[in-house]
Design goal:
Elements (H helix, E strand, L loop, with lengths): L1 E2 L2 E2 L8 H22 L3 H14 L11 H15 L6 H10 L3
Antiparallel strand pairs: 1-2
Length: 99
């Protein structure tokens, strides 16, 4: 089996199940990346930042302007008051994104 340009020798410590999972995770990741490529550039950047953060790699922090910070604070306050988007609106948004 070939992995990242190197041959993995028959090592007793590497089971077939582990190798299978490595290959399958690579396919799943490729499928996700293919899907992300279809998104607008700003959404691709957001996904990439989250992936890098999850992988433990330092991702650049997003600098928010004051208008955006105010909108985020207002959104938090709306959530605290129980003011949420209607389920129908979320369902339509998910449908447009193929979720």
């Amino acid at each position: 089996m070939r992995r990242q340009g190197r041959w993995i020798e028959n090592q007793p410590c590497i089971s077939r199940a582990i190798l299978y999972n490595l290959v399958m995770m690579t396919r799943l990741l490729q499928k996700a990346i293919d899907r992300v490529r279809e998104l607008p550039e700003d959404e691709q950047e957001a996904v990439a930042a989250v992936m890098l953060q999850m992988a433990g790699t330092d991702a650049p922090l997003v600098q928010l302007d004051e208008e955006t910070r105010a909108a985020v604070r207002e959104g938090i306050r709306q959530g605290e008051r129980g003011e949420f988007v209607a389920d129908e609106v979320v369902a339509e948004s998910n449908k447009r994104r193929g979720l």
